[in-house]
Amino acid sequence: MIVTLNNKCNLTRQEFLSYKKQLQQIKTDVTLILCPCSLFLNDIDLDNIKIGAQNVSCTECGSYTGEISATQLKSMNVSYCIVGHSERRKYQQETNREINEKIKNLLKVNIIPILCVGEEKEERQKQIEKQVITKDLEEATQGLSEEEKSKIIIAYEPIWSIGTGIIPQIREIDDVVELMKDKFPNNKILYGGSANEENIETLNQISKIDGYLVGGLSLKPEQLKIFLKKLKK
Ligand code: PGA
Q: For the chain, which domains are there?
């Protein structure tokens, strides 16, 4: 099982350093991937945790003010990187074409992309979630070989579930995971969206899931410990 901790744009450096100490005490056989604010990547030196980034540039190194390239992430011992998170699609107008470029840049330096896809509430109400997800997956992975594709971790994140405390019905998650496994049989699939220590027993009923991507929970080490204990391995 994999649990990815997406800190988003939270914590000052001082807060991060004390948070890190709490994470250090977690003993688990789950693969934990910590994705902090990029400014703190150099502060992660935990042997129980792998290093992830929350974003990468579409460009290589060069005259691109403010960007962080895949090569630079690699030089910070980053092994995973979230791409296509719905918050970036919404607030930075990130497109599937850009996400595709990011994935290619990451794979070139052997960083595993964690590709997020998921539908809006209205899309689910219109029952077009499978079309939306299929389109996003196809466009984001365009031009990749089967071998390259299989390296990507896919996170199903229904947008209406992120940060809302609402989780889909298990049947709804199962349906999407099945669609993903059908198109990407060798890939690891995560679920993300309000997963926490209280609903994990319900989420444990998802039939085929390889782990979770958590936002809010990532910032609460005590609750995270409970989540990891209850998690079906
Ligand atoms: P959440 O965020 O766990 O706070 O809903 C998940 C995510 O945005 O990846």
A: 2-230 (3.20.20.70)
